[in-house]
Design a protein that fits this description.
Radius of gyration: 18 Å
Order of helices and strands: HHHHEEEHEHEHEHHEHEH
Distance between the termini: 32 Å
CATH topology: Rossmann fold
Strand content: 15-25%
Length: 294
Amino acid sequence: MASWQMRAVALVLRATRRRTWTTAEHARRKIDAPKRETPPPRGLIRRHDVSVRTVVGFPCWTVRPRTEPVAAAVYLHGGAYIAGIAPQHWALIGRLADAGVRVEVPLYGLAPQHTYREAYPFVAAVWQELAREPPPGGLVLAGDSAGGGLALGLAQELVAEGGTVPDRLVLLSPWLDLTLGHPQLPEYERRDPWLARPGLVEAGRAWAGGDDPRTARLSPGNGPMEGLPPTSVLVGTREIGYPDAVDFAKAASADGVRVDLTAVEGAVHVYPLVPAPEGAAGTRAVVRAVAGPA
């Protein structure tokens, strides 16, 4: 059973966030709104070496521990491809850096001004730069929600192209199908206090920029699984993406991928970022998955 804190978070989300996603019209207002990127918080800057540079025209933050890194990661934030990095993302990134992980944080361009066609070359360039100096603990590709989908899509391309494949892949509630066409989706949409199909499909259309949203770059749940690195998936049972996450874990496992699926009963979307006991446990699990041995 979910904690009372998780149930309270669900109530707040339903009251304050769900309306954005219930219709395409509401979502379009969100899509067209001015974009905001939250800067790294002061506490993170005090504890670690934090810098920003431009890579192929987009900003990328580096959060480097002041000790020798035990691992390095590229972290791709969520936000339905239309919203910028949030304080909750920086909090998780800070926890990773506290554990000795060097974290690259690419701020990919957001829809509708930008699409996946610009994001892939950008995050691939950041990954290639990081891969030139891998620490002993290995290289990790991680992301949540939309960023989780982008992380999986990039990993699939690295496998296909013979690039440097991550030692580990860590996905938090990844968005695996832009069309949200899973037959079980209506059941989980009713349970989800935050997200709904009409608005998400509209955001996905903006990100696709007129291309077929079913292609693997946009819906990596449809992409090849063979050759992927050991993968951790963290998902709540009270979110619209739960059935796709379960199907991905089964399909990847059938293709020989070592998949660790953690499905937390009653937890909401991207639960490791949520102020609840499940969120704290999820954060610890993400830190272990990223900072631990390959």
